[in-house]
Design a protein that fits this description.
The structure holds two protein chains of two kinds. By secondary structure, chain A is of the alpha+beta class. Chain A contains seven helices and twelve strands. In chain A, strands 6, 7, 8, 9, 10, 11 and 12 form a seven-stranded mixed beta sheet that branches. In chain A, a hairpin with a 4-residue loop joins strand 9 and strand 10. In chain A, helix 1 runs antiparallel to helix 2 and helix 3 runs antiparallel to helix 4 (276-308). The two termini of chain A are 67 Å apart. Chain B is α/β, with parallel strands linked by helices. Helices cover 39% and strands 22% of the residues of chain B. Chain B is built from eight helices and twelve strands. In chain B, the strands form three sheets. In chain B, strands 2-1-3-4-5 form a five-stranded parallel beta sheet, with helices on both faces. In chain B, strands 6-7-8-9 form a four-stranded antiparallel beta sheet, with helices on one face. In chain B, strand 11 (211-214) and strand 12 form a beta hairpin. The radius of gyration of chain B is 19 Å and the shape is elongated. The chains are: A alpha+beta, B alpha/beta. The A-B interface holds A 284, 287, 291, 294-295, 298, 301-302, 305, 311, 313, 326, 329-331, 333-334, 337, 357, 360-361, 364-365, 367-368, 371-372, 425-426, 430 and B 82-85, 102, 104, 152, 154, 180, 182-190, 193-194, 196-197, 216.
């Protein structure tokens, strides 16, 4: 189905066309108004001059009667150089004087005004042409005793000027319309071409080439902005795809190990035909391997939900001290059992907007890490305080080995496990989960050194802090 | 106890059924929500174990229909959806407890038994007694034999939960959910540590132990 060239269907073309038409119409109206005004003025000026001359002639008639008037007209018209057209007619219809041969064959209006074409008398020996038909207007008045007097003016030049003006106006309007249409075609073709280039990129990307980007003009106009947004979206899509692939690889890697182990155990159990004890032991360990795998799965799921913003929690105003108190109470005996000194410094009267379950989970994660990595004899401190204006900080400080500066950025990535932690149980997702929970609360995650090397310990320690925007003090 | 399992996955259903029977319960199976609804109406069950996502009628619709008919049989909801909002949905529909798949059978059994207990007429009890251990819920005191035992507030709540479910297995996850109101699994053995603290107060000084560890499942308080 053919619907004509693409640019004809664009909004731009239609709008340009519409504005061109509007522009042509409005300039036509303005010029028509100018025309009407100047045409009317030409007529009025001629009429005023005619009126003045008529008054002179009537005064002449009043003063000296018909003879005086006749003489006056003769004087004026002798030699053919008169400004006005005159005609004095006897009551019988006979022409007495004047430079017009007969009264124009036009019916005057009630004031005696009339417009007509007359033939200009020619100098003897010159050809008469069409050009000698000239426009004129004048007024016919009835004098006393049946004499009639006509005074007129040749307005041919003025009329021609006005009519030239009219054709100019029409031509100008037509030109404006034509230019508008041409402009519309030009602009919309350019528009279509730029849109097409973006559409083309969309098609290539859909076909699988995620690297393609829409061309930018950097002019900052709407199409450029569209291209920019489009490109940003593609960047995000590409990053997500990349992360998905990476996660897939990591899942495969991290699950393969426990899955292989479990498979081997089950296989072994199958072959331990006689030894029931060994068989049971192998099965039990296989179950605990399964639990580990399920744990990793669950962590991956929660993390994906948190990161995708799929489960947007309703954050409510809460007292962070309650969260810290509960976790301090939960972990203090654990630390004690591990031979760690536990201390909680919890500031009261703070408030923040958050989800109790998630914040507790994040804090529990940091405490788990501190307990796991700090050697016996060390210390773990849970701290809640206000840091600066409008900020609340939960932190867990330990005296363990710490995390080297270079690795601090890396540890929050999924499945990143530092070499010295490989031997510890864990999915490598804990800190990613903490980071995702912090992001959901618009907070920041800080990892730095703990209290420095403590006697009997093997590293500078670690301070992991979650900093959140706080609500006004004591409003919780 | 008579238990109805409403679960469309036959393998999962027969796993639960076998386990429940081995633990001395009678278990029936319905393969979808509609069948489950009919069976629950026809017979008097002590507990319903209902899968959330099923063909024909999903579990939550089935539960709210039953509740609409004023059937107050305790329901344990099974679901692969484990977010807090999902839990809240399940409990709002009329479920009494919510267990996220996959789960260990011991966990399911412990929860089913805890739910059946809840069915007993809810008399307002002010005193819990297990053997020679007594808890006064009003005075908030605990006495074993002649001796008063001083407990921290959380230890008191932990013991209260154990005493209310005396004779039953309670799992670590149940304790974390019901006593601490946490729905995540800490990496460290926090619950074990707290149990061992409690044990040192209520059991150690006495010749007979009341708080037992059930291997692979959890704990049981029993005289």
């Amino acid at each position: 189905m053919s619907r004509g060239p693409a640019f004809l269907r664009t909004t731009t073309f239609r709008q340009t066309l519409l504005s061109a038409a509007l522009f042509a119409l409005s300039s036509f109206i303005i010029l028509a108004f100018v025309y009407a005004a100047s045409a009317g003025m030409t007529g009025r000026r001629a009429d005023a001059a005619i009126e003045e001359e008529l008054q002179t002639l009537e005064a002449q008639f009043q003063a000296g009667g018909i003879r005086s008037l006749n003489r006056y007209i003769l004087q004026r018209t002798v030699g053919g150089g008169a400004d006005y057209l005159y005609l004095l007619v006897h009551p019988t219809g006979r022409t007495l004087s004047g430079n017009l041969s007969v009264l124009p064959d036009v019916e005057p209006d009630e004031e005696g005004r009339l417009e007509f074409i007359y033939r200009r008398p020619r100098a003897i020996g010159t050809e008469e042409t069409e050009k000698d038909d000239r426009a004129a207007r004048g007024r016919l008045v009835e004098l006393t005793s049946g004499y009639r007097l006509f005074v007129g003016l040749d307005v041919d030049e003025e009329y021609q000027l006005v009519s030239r003006m009219l054709s100019t106006i029409l031509a100008a309007s037509a030109l404006a319309l034509a230019l508008g249409v041409a402009g519309g075609v030009f602009i919309s073709r350019r528009f279509v071409a730029r849109l097409d280039s973006i559409n083309e990129v969309a098609r290539t990307v859909r076909a699988g080439d995620l690297k393609r980007r829409a061309p930018r003009t950097h002019s900052g106009d709407e199409l450029d902005e569209l291209a920019e947004n489009f490109n940003n979206m593609l960047d995000r899509v590409e990053a997500l795809m990349h992360r998905m692939r990476q996660t897939g690889d990591s899942i495969a890697h991290d699950l393969r190990t426990p899955l292989t182990r479990m498979r081997n155990r089950l296989d072994e159990a199958l072959r331990e035909e006689g030894d029931l004890d060994a068989r049971e032991q192998a099965l039990e360990r296989a179950v605990s391997d399964t639990d580990e795998i399920l744990g990793i799965f669950n962590a991956i799921l929660s993390l994906s939900r948190l990161e995708s913003g799929e489960s947007r929690k309703a954050l409510v105003e809460l007292d962070p001290a309650e969260i810290a108190d509960d976790l301090a109470e939960l972990y203090e005996p654990v630390c004690e059992d591990e031979g760690l000194a536990f201390d909680a410094e919890i500031e009261r009267g703070l408030a923040l907007r958050g989800d109790r379950g998630l914040l507790s989970q994040a804090l529990a994660n940091l405490l788990d890490n501190a307990v796991k990595y700090t050697p016996s004899g060390g210390a773990v401190t849970l701290r809640l305080r206000q840091t600066g204006e409008g900020l609340v900080e939960f932190s867990v400080t330990d005296t363990g080995p710490g995390i080297p500066d270079a690795d601090r950025e890396r540890v929050v990535q999924r499945f990143v496990r530092l070499d010295n932690s490989r031997s510890q149980p864990g999915s490598g997702l804990g800190l990613s989960l903490v980071k995702a929970i912090i992001d959901l609360h618009h907070g920041i995650f800080q990892i730095d050194e703990g209290p420095g090397v403590v006697e009997g310990q093997h590293g500078p320690g670690l301070r992991a802090a979650m900093v959140f925007p706080s609500l006004p003090r004591g409003s919780a | 106890m008579r238990i109805l399992i409403v679960e469309d996955d036959r393998e999962a259903a027969s796993y639960i059924r076998k386990g429940l029977r081995e633990s001395g319960h009678v278990a029936d199976h319905a393969a979808d929500g509609e069948e489950g609804l009919e069976m629950a109406r026809a017979a008097d069950y002590d507990v319903l174990v209902v899968d959330r996502m099923m063909p024909k009628m999903d579990g939550l619709t089935m539960i709210s229909t039953l509740r609409g008919e004023d059937d107050r049989t305790p329901v344990l909801v099974l679901s692969a959806l484990g977010e807090v909002d999902h839990r809240v949905e399940g409990l709002k529909a009329g479920g009494d407890d919510y267990l996220v798949k996959p789960y260990a059978f011991a966990e399911l059994l412990a929860r089913v038994e805890a739910l059946a207990r809840r069915r007993d007429p809810e008399t307002v009890r002010t005193k819990l007694v297990v053997g020679d251990l007594e808890m006064d819920l009003l005075a908030r005191t605990v006495v074993r034999g002649e001796e008063e035992i001083l407990l921290q507030p959380r230890e008191f709540r932990l013991l209260e939960f154990l005493m209310k479910h005396s004779g039953q297995v309670v799992t670590r996850t149940m304790l974390l959910e019901k006593v601490w109101d946490y729905h995540f699994d800490p990496q460290t053995n926090v619950i074990d540590v707290h149990i061992s603290r409690l044990r040192s107060k209520i059991d150690k000084p006495f010749p007979r132990s009341l708080l037992h560890t059930v291997r692979g499942a959890g704990y049981r308080l029993q005289a």
